[in-house]
Design goal:
Layout (H helix, E strand, L loop, with lengths): L3 E9 L3 E8 L4 E5 L6 H15 L7 H10 L6 H23 L3 H4 L7 E7 L8 H11 L3 E5 L14 H13 L2 E5 L6 H11 L6 E3 L7 H8 L6 E3 L6 H10 L4 E2 L8 H14 L3 E2 L7 H13 L6 E2 L29 E3 L12 H8 L10 E2 L5 E2 L2
Length: 381
């Protein structure tokens, strides 16, 4: 079996971190280790993993995953798991390309030919959503997601929630379904009110109604509303996700393939969710490699529901977009709310390595935005 001889990583605009693995006979695979706002930390972790796994057999994806997980003593968390994800995705891409088949063929074959998708509107301080919803509808989307509110205090005026309800009504009037992202920025006294206020207008789901560090609060809130509860982007392994499944607090699981250990761990998480009758809707406001990896999972997963994609997301404004860094951006064309399942080898995208290398030169790490309240206090973003 060919051995890994080189692992490289590339920081590229707008905020992505790509990984390239080469084996001793020249086979190549690409992964994505993006962890928004923590690029430097993931790069440091990748340096350690590179030293450990270079020289291992590239085909032994599970052994490499277990080596990365178990031999470091400390494990899990967003930094370690994002670095692991970049390597894991690249290894699946490399192996499938060597066999000349899509990754989903190595995962048991497809259960669908099209993948349902949604896009973002509204930005971090949501506004002008009706026009943006019309634009997404013209692009072929039938569903969108938007932030529920701007920053809020622990206990804010109930009137601060009114705009969110009006935005949902405006998007529904355009004829689109809408997920509402609470983004963990709304604390329990306000989240309870907003969930109840939105319910008559039937959002597709409410996402991260509270931060995942409050599992009991999420369970209690889930019992107050019939709206599906979605979460998972800040849960980084099956062990972190298990309590939410066992408590019945989540209806739609949203792990991020670049944060949870890659394709290997995502498929295990998906199978766990199926046993609890929970849908899979992977989080992915990231780059084309991460999205392509998610599509491979979606192709093989019975309980897959819908896929987030970052086409034209506000974080990409004035920079590269989902259609950058590849030679076949047409794979992201949306028709009737769906993209077609890619049929090419590996992840199904062809990375433009020249563009990756050129734009990685002197690329700056992306810094997470933040909110400051009127009293000078830090608020959840």
């Amino acid at each position: 079996m060919p051995k890994i001889v080189k692992i490289e990583y590339f920081r590229v605009p707008p905020r992505w971190l790509f990984v390239k693995i080469t084996d001793e006979i020249g086979n190549v695979g690409w992964g994505e280790a993006t962890l928004e706002g923590h690029t430097n930390a993931v790069e440091g972790c990748l340096d350690a993993y590179i030293e450990r796994i270079t020289g291992m057999d590239a085909d032994d994806i599970e052994h490499i995953w277990q080596t990365s997980w178990r031999l470091g003593f400390y494990r899990g968390g967003p930094v370690f798991m994002s670095a692991m994800a970049g390597i894991d995705i690249a290894l699946w891409d490399l192996k499938a390309r060597r066999f000349g088949v899509p990754v989903y063929q190595l995962l048991g074959g497809k259960v669908r030919d099209k993948i349902k998708v949604y896009a973002w509107i509204g930005g971090d301080r949501p506004s002008d959503v009706a026009a943006q919803a019309e634009a997404r509808k013209a692009q072929g989307f039938t569903a969108i997601k938007m932030n529920g509110t701007e920053d809020l205090g622990w206990l804010d005026s109930p009137s601060a929630l009114d705009d969110c309800v009006e935005r949902l009504k405006a998007v529904k009037a355009v004829g689109l379904d809408a997920g509402i992202d609470f983004h963990g920025r709304i604390h329990k006294p306000m989240a309870k009110q907003l969930a109840r206020a939105l319910e008559p207008h039937r959002p597709l789901f409410i996402e991260e109604p509270l931060l995942s560090e409050h599992p009991d609060g999420i369970k209690a809130l889930s019992q107050l509303t019939s709206t599906p509860i979605a979460l998972g982007e800040r849960l980084h392994s099956r062990w972190e996700i298990r309590p939410f499944l066992e408590s019945g607090a989540v209806d739609i699981l949203q792990p991020d393939i670049s944060h949870c250990g890659g394709i290997s761990e995502m498929r295990r998480i998906a199978a766990m969710a199926e046993t609890y009758d929970v849908a899979l809707a992977p989080h992915c406001p990231l780059g084309p490699i991460a999205l392509a990896a998610n599509v491979q999972i979606a192709a093989t997963t019975p309980n897959f529901a819908i896929q987030e994609m970052s086409l034209g997301i506000h974080y990409n404004a004035g920079s590269q977009d989902l259609t950058s860094y590849t030679h076949n951006p047409e794979v992201w064309k949306v028709t009737g709310g769906y993209i077609d399942l890619m049929k090419g080898p590996g992840l199904g995208i062809e990375v433009d390595e020249e563009q990756v290398r050129r734009l990685s030169v002197n690329a700056k790490p992306w810094v997470s935005p933040g909110f400051i309240g009127p009293g000078g206090e830090v608020r959840e973003w």
